[in-house]
Amino acid sequence: MIRYFLLVIAIFVAGAAVIVLLKPDAGYVLINYGHWVAETSLTVLVIGLALWYWLFYLAFKLFVLAIRLPGNLRERLDQRRNDRARNSFEAGLQSLFEGNWKRAEMELVRRASDHHAAHLNYIAAARAAQHQGAADRRDHYLQLAAQNKPELEFTTQLAQADLQRKRGEFEATRSSALALRARDPQHPFAVELLAESYLALGDWEPLRQLLISSAGVAALTPQRHEALLCRATVELMRIAVSDARLDRLKALWDAAGAARQHIEVVREYARGLARLNADAQALALIAQTLAQQWDGELVLLYGDLHTVDPIAQLATVEQWLGRYGEKAELLQVAGRVCLRNKLWGKARSYLEAVLQSSPTPKAYLDLARLCQETQHPEDAAKFFRQGLELATQAS
User: Fold this and answer.
1) Closest CA to 143 of 163, 162, 123, 168
2) Considering the domain boundaries, does residue 322 fall inside one?
3) Radius of gyration for the alpha carbons in the chain, expressed in angstroms and rounded
4) pLDDT by residue (tens digit) across 56-111?
5) Which of 74, 314, 333, 385 has the most neighbouring CB atoms within 10 Å?
6) If 0-12 CB within 10 Å is exposed, 13-18 middle and 19+ buried, where does residue 155 land?
7) Do 257 and 338 belong to one domain?
8) What distance in Å separates the CA atoms of residue 232 and residue 346, rounded to the nearest whole number?
């Protein structure tokens, strides 16, 4: 503005000078006020007025500048503090991403109070402290973040629960996640944190209840949800078996839903039925499963189960042999069932086929018992010894 004003004055003066030089009569001005009389040329008057105007304008600008000086100075200082706070925050984040935890914590905290988003400084500093194993400083920073932005307390609590989980503080994670779900039962990350804490602490029934809820289904990926639900169901089945509660075991199976398609759940349920003397139900379950897919563990379990109709049991095993081929598990179970039916020749044929393909201590034991039943003690002793040697090598 001053530059434009000076340019106008310069043009004005130059114009007046041109007038004086080009015209012999530059004009005459007489001013009479009371006893005062002033006379001058028109050119001098114009130049004088221009100079007085410029002096007045300059004085006015200096006056305005003096009034605004404190505010302008304060704004400049605030801007400088904000720039330093932003630079410190960016340097702290870069150090955090680079894994320089100590420097990151220092940079993030140093000018946090001057940053417009100080709660982000404190949350990031809490992560840096976490990596240094400083749980006290971590919790202190999270508390400062919550105090700085009360309306973002939920976000701060989420960060706290996540850091507790990563630190392995699963009881604290469970408490934090439960508090979060009390405020927002459907929040996916809160559900995930709660599920992880239940898994780590072995809270199987609460985990199962969480997973079958709509929030649990929506929060986790299908693969993760299936894996956790299967794990919880299997563990609860083991507890039911150890407590000799067949009703509880069956209730868990009925409520398993899609987890019933998972082979590990089927195995655990079949083993539980066998241990609780529900052999008929275990046989039916295994037969139904093997009609759809192969599983060697279920086949071996099938061979240990007792039935009122061993001939039908043998027929089922031989049917599987025709479907799945001469797998070692099927041959071993076929030999064992033949032993029960006292079909010595077929039993020996099946068991010797096992020894040729993939010998097991159990196959040697079954063959030794067959030799005892058929009055061949020397062969029985030999097979007992070979089975013992194989079991010793395996252990």
Assistant:
1) 123
2) yes
3) 46
4) 777 788 788 778 777 777 777 777 887 888 888 888 889 888 889 889 888 888 88
5) 333
6) middle
7) no
8) 43
Query: pLDDT over 90 for what percent of the chain?
Result: 33
Quick: pLDDT tens for 185-214: 999 999 999 999 999 999 999 999 999 999
Alpha helix (H) residue ranges in the chain: 2-22, 42-98, 101-110, 118-131, 135-148, 153-167, 170-183, 188-201, 204-212, 214-219, 222-242, 246-254, 263-275, 279-290, 296-304, 310-324, 328-340, 344-357, 361-373, 377-394
Residue-by-residue DSSP string for 119-139: HHHHHHHHHHHHHTT-HHHHH
**Does some domain include residue 358?**
yes
The CATH number given to whatever domain includes residue 370 is 1.25.40.10
Kindly state the average pLDDT of the residues 373-377.
83
Does 334 share its domain with 371?
yes
User: Rounded to an integer, what distance in angstroms lies between the CA atom of residue 31 and that of residue 10?
Assistant: 26
C-beta neighbour count of 256 within 10 angstroms: 23
Q: What is the pLDDT of residues 215-229, one digit of tens each?
A: 999 999 999 999 999
Asked if 322 and 366 sit in the same domain, the reply is yes
Residue 58 is assigned to a structural domain of this protein: no
**What span, in angstroms and rounded, lies between the C-alpha atoms of 72 and 113?**
22
